[in-house]
Amino acid sequence: MEITFKIPDEFARQVASEGKDPARVALEALALEGYRAGQLSESAVREMLGFETRMEVHAFLKSHGVYLQYDLADLEQDARTAEKLRGKFQEEKTAPSGKPRSG
User: Fold this and answer.
1) Which of 14, 18, 24, 64 has its CA 20 to 30 A from that of 79?
2) Distance between CA 73 and CA 68 in Å, rounded?
3) Which of 17, 23, 21, 48 is CA-nearest to residue 34?
4) Interatomic CA distance for residues 59 and 61, integer angstroms
5) What one-character DSSP code corresponds to residue 20?
6) What is residue 99's predicted lDDT score, i.e. its pLDDT?
7) How far is it, in rounded angstroms, from Cα 35 to Cα 45?
8) pLDDT number for residue 103
9) CB under 8 Å to 41, separation ≥6 — which residues?
10) How far apart are CA 22 and CA 43, in angstroms?
């Protein structure tokens, strides 16, 4: 979706520091507020702003004083994922005969 709005040049200069694109500043502000309000996910922010990785999103949020939305359910999910991965790595370390692989 394309959204167009007009603001006086003087306000555009106030919100977008020298050399910054006011349209990009507005898009970033929309993404930040959407994330703060819980209306946009981390993935949505990444897609909106064209970031390739979650780490770029995290750095962007941090640079704007916005904390990651991470609750107990997220922690529990991460713990389950870590446990599954730990089991997979243990399986890979042993050969089908049960003996550790060399190398």
Assistant:
1) 64
2) 14
3) 48
4) 6
5) -
6) 59
7) 7
8) 54
9) 35
10) 23
Residue type for position 94: T
Burial 46-74 (b: 16+ CB within 10 A, else e): bebbebeeeeebbebbeeeebeeeeeeee
Cα 82 to Cα 20, 64, 89: the distances in Å are: 41, 30, 10
Q: Give 10-residue mean pLDDT values along the chain (103 residues).
A: 86 81 91 95 95 94 91 88 88 67 57
DSSP string, 47-78: HHHT-SSHHHHHHHHHHTT------HHHHHHH
pTM of the predicted model, to two decimals? 0.67
Residues 13-30 as b/e (b if ≥16 CB within 10 A, e otherwise) read eeeeeeeeeeeeebebee
CA nearest 60: which of 27, 18, 17? 27
